[in-house]
Amino acid sequence: MLAVATACRPRPAPPPPPTTVAPPLTEAPLEPSGAAALAVGPIRETRSADGRAVFIEGTVENVGTRATQTITVWVNALDEAGMVLERVQALPTPQDPPPGTVARFVVQLRDDPRVRTYDVEAIGR
What are the tens digits of pLDDT across the range 92-111? Predict the structure, then answer.
């Protein structure tokens, strides 16, 4: 009978709760990362001396709130109906312009008499 009486003893009381509470986990607010935004500046068309090529020069301005990276410019030569006759890619310099600064580009296209205008696209991240 002694064994049965020992096994039925009440459990000891749990320990009291801690008197100090750990502070909750908090995160510091992050600075806004900003946005990269590009604006194509005026372009200039120059014919080569031999009349076989056209050079398109221009600028891309960073009008965003952070530096950009990996800028690609596409220059499209368009005919009267807006159809693309030729498409050329350029990598402006510098590739990482800070906000408020410009990158410059130049491309060479064939001197095609059907070309009426140029469309310039700038893409960056």
Answer: 999 999 999 999 999 999 99
| Measured CA distances, 51 to 7, 33, 113, 114 (Å) | 107, 47, 11, 14
Q: Which conformational region is residue 6 in: left (phi greater than 0), alpha (psi within -120 to 50 degrees), or beta? A: alpha
Residue-level pLDDT at 5: 56
Q: Dig out the tokens for 59 from the structure.
A: 């600028």
Taken in order 71, 72, 75, 76, is the CA torsion positive or negative? Answer: negative
Range of the domain at 91: 34-123
First to last CA, the chain: 82
Domain total for the chain?
1
* CA dist., res. 95 & res. 102, Å (int): 10
Whole-model pTM: value is 0.71
Q: What is the CATH number of the domain that holds 71?
A: 2.60.40.10
